[in-house]
Design a protein that fits this description.
The structure is a single chain. This protein is mainly alpha-helical. The protein folds into 2 domains: 1-63; 76-149, F1FO ATP Synthase. Helices cover 88% and strands 0% of the residues. It is flat.
């Protein structure tokens, strides 16, 4: 299982370094264009694959037989730690989705309110609908957390 964690860490580290390099030197992107998109895509596929591997291998650890007194004295098991990380994934992903949705909707609603102030209520409804995505993820995390305990 540690090789999956190492694979995920290397994929994240590579994506971060690639992003920093392309942000600091944007002209580098035109010279590296033939290979940087496939490289980033490969890193993303490796990351998602390793995450799915951790999910499937971690589920067996989380659903294993009850802990003995020796395991409970040392603290949390690896499977339970992975299960708790898995509980946080819906909240994190839904928050990212809500942020992606709220950005353009907020900008458009600000422009609409500047032209027609009476449209404020309607634009707030649209913003609330976009923000509801994050609430759905939070509810899913709470439901999953209740299943662990």
């Amino acid at each position: 299982m540690y090789w999956l964690v190492a694979l995920m860490s290397m994929a994240i580290f590579g994506l971060i370094l690639s992003g920093i390099a392309l942000e600091l030197r944007p002209r580098l992107a035109t010279r590296l264009r033939p290979w940087y998109k496939p490289a980033l895509g490969t890193q993303l596929v490796l990351f998602v694959g390793a995450q799915m591997g951790l999910l499937f291998l971690g589920v067996s650890d989380a659903l294993a037989e009850p802990e003995t007194t020796a395991a409970s004295a040392t603290g949390m098991s690896t499977g339970m730690g992975l299960a708790i990380l898995g509980v946080g994934i819906p909240t994190g992903l839904s928050t990212i989705g809500a942020g992606i949705a709220v950005g353009p909707i907020g900008a458009a609603s600000l422009a609409a309110v500047m032209e027609r102030p009476e449209a404020l209520g309607r634009t707030l409804i649209f913003l609330g609908l976009a923000e509801g995505i994050a609430i759905y993820g939070l509810v899913m995390s709470i439901l999953l957390l209740n299943r662990l305990g």
